[in-house]
Amino acid sequence: DAGITQSPRHKVTETGTPVTLRCHQTENHRYMYWYRQDPGHGLRLIHYSYGVKDTDKGEVSDGYSVSRSKTEDFLLTLESATSSQTSVYFCAISPRTRETQYFGPGTRLLVL
Amino acid sequence: AQTVTQSQPEMSVQEAETVTLSCTYDTSESDYYLFWYKQPPSRQMILVIRQEAYKQQNATENRFSVNFQKAAKSFSLKISDSQLGDAAMYFCAYRRRGGSQGNLIFGKGTKLSVKP
Q: Do A42 and B33 touch (CB under 8 A)?
């Protein structure tokens, strides 16, 4: 199994508060991704990173920001959480774009 | 834009029997990858099988095989000798070859139940 961890695994927060989710990998892979999973939508890309300090937006990036200061860590921040951001968040990694992506265990976020 | 469609929201199979999950996709690219991921109740996303579009031979992994029809843009998953542990959500996914992004485009999933 790819060495990917996500923290926290579960979080309950209130509308308007900032939230940061962390993805940590031990594989030294270049590419890291954040997806969200919602019923009826499958998984959708929020942001991705193609190297340290190199990030770009995905399909559903509004309301989210990311940072990658080290190869192993990719942070997803909700600056001011809203109820529409209640979801399960998955991190994924791959060494190259043509390689298979491997997923972390997910973070379940509930915004009240 | 690429899209992936899974037309069967739910499927059911008897233990030890065979089931086929459907997936179609839309793309103007000629070179790409297709995947099936399994998501059990634990929510972990597990790679089941991968197909490279330039390979005509259908991929196989033990009891899992695909029927890849490039011209029809169809990519179905066949599970043989179904087991109780196969019960899960199954997602079909597409990724174009090349480019700087490499993200996956997912279908909405098929929930597979396995009856003892």
A: no
* pLDDT 10s digits, B52-111: 998 888 999 999 999 999 999 999 999 999 999 999 999 999 998 876 677 889 999 999
As a whole number of angstroms, the distance between CA B84 and CA A100 comes to: 26
Dihedral of the alpha carbons of A78, A39, A109, A19, in degrees to the nearest 10: 0
CB contact under 8 A, A48 and B45: no
Distance CA(B62)–CA(B53), nearest Å, equals 20
Phi, psi at B56, each rounded to 5°? -80, -25
Tell if the CB–CB gap between A41 and B33 is shorter than 8 Å. Answer: no
Distance CA B40, CA A45 (A): 21
Task: Give the C-alpha separation, B44 to B47, whole Å.
Answer: 10
| Out of A58, A97, A100, closest to residue B50 by CB | A100
Return all residues near B107 (Cβ < 8 A) that are at least 6 apart: A42, B4, B5, B6, B23, B91, B92, B93
Neighbours of A11 (CB within 10 A): 16
Dump pLDDT digits (tens) for B1-57: 789 999 999 999 999 999 999 999 999 988 899 999 999 998 899 999 999 998 888
